Amino acid sequence: MDLLRFATAGSVDDGKSTLIGRLLYDSKSIFEDQLASIEATSHDRGDEHTDLALLTDGLRAEREQGITIDVAHRYFATPRRKFIIADTPGHIQYTRNMVTGASTADLAIVLVDARKGLTEQSRRHSFIASLLRIPHLVLAINKMDLVDFDQDVFEKIRREYIEFATRLDVPDLTFIPISALYGDNVVDRSANTDWYKGGTLLHHLEEVYIASDRNMVDVRFPVQYVIRPKSTEHHDFRGYAGTVAGGVMKPSDEVAVLPSGFTTRIKAIHGTNGEVAEAHSPMSVVIQLEDELDVSRGDLICRINNQPQVTQDLEAMVCWMSEASQLREGSKLAVKHTTKWARALVKDLRYRLDINTLHRDESATELTLNEIGRVRLRVTQPLFADDYQSNRTTGSFILVDETSNVTVGAGMIRATE
């Protein structure tokens, strides 16, 4: 079975946590003691129904306020597919949490309250999903039970969102009317929406095709660790461990090692259960090369005639995540790109982006908490970078404050100079 990572997003109180609770409950993916616990908590709080949002809202502040603050990850599986869910916050104050939670997602579910229609946060999170190049987007129009499952309400929101989405880069867009509270069109089809001819949310999650979303052309293998066993039996073994970030690798393939540029062939590929015939993203493997080259952590193995750009000048969209500091021209930070560390100098803040209007403020001089802007960086060591649209692994990086060792920003490379 393959794995689908998806994230929920949307405005505060649109029902993201309830939807995930409903998915887990109706797909029989929670234990009896978990159910008993949330039933007891719901009863103690005087709730009319069992609050399934409690399955993901685990922080005390989340339960007190009824909002999601931090990203909660949940895992479940059906006979067709495995899933990892990231329940991300809806409040503008936690935009950084939404960015980190959705950064690895194959699909995003943006919830909209049928009574309110599109809100500022609906647009904000849709834009962030587009910025993160999440290829599949589902607009789940929730709380249809509160508008009597009116088709006109659904169609009005659908038309409005399609008009807005023309400004975004969303290759696959799906609309589903649901009621997370009662389970309509979540796992089982609803008799209340006989006018809706599409599938349920779970059916869509099981069937959406994601194999073509991964870059299977450009071979990228950042070296994470050099393996040299000390045993007498394996005294001549030298392997390079890491996660395949793109392309397909096979024994006897001719490859180049960056930054040296030396070429060799792949001798063998080892997986968790021994040698494998090929490796592709996102497999974690150990690569053996035919020649003994100087290869260390931070180097990258790729095809001879298909290499990333080796550069010390980056241009990227950066989401700033620090409350204690700001990103300004001249700021000095550490940068981690794939498995390589370097130091970076902010050369220029080209513009700050208003996520609500998509307006570019070219007069901006800094980025503060949760703000996104286009930034030029100069790094101390050459990085092996692709455009983020081409490869989300080699096209992204994090920025770290060297004094506190706190991650202060996340970047998506848009162009390399």
Give your account of this protein's structure.
The chain is of the alpha+beta class. It has three domains: about 210 residues, P-loop containing nucleotide triphosphate hydrolases (Rossmann fold, 3-Layer(aba) Sandwich); about 80 residues, Beta Barrel (Elongation Factor Tu (Ef-tu), domain 3); about 110 residues, Translation factors (Elongation Factor Tu (Ef-tu), domain 3), CATH 2.40.30.10. Helix content is about 20%, strand content about 35%. Strands 7, 8, 9, 11, 12, 13, 15 and 16 form an eight-stranded antiparallel β-sheet that branches. About 5% of the residues have low confidence.
Oligomer: single chain
Backbone structural class: alpha+beta
At CATH level 3, the topology of the largest domain is Rossmann fold
Largest sheet: 8 strands, antiparallel
- Unreliable residue stretches: 59-69
Termini, distance in Å? 40 Å
Percent range for β-strand residues: 35-45%
Look at the structure and name the CATH superfamily of the largest domain. Answer: P-loop containing nucleotide triphosphate hydrolases
CATH architecture of the largest domain: 3-Layer(aba) Sandwich
CATH class of the largest domain: Alpha Beta
- Summed over residues and divided by their number, the pLDDT gives a mean of 86
Overall tally of domains: 3
Give the helix proportion (percent range).
Answer: 10-25%
> Which geometry do the CA atoms define?
globular
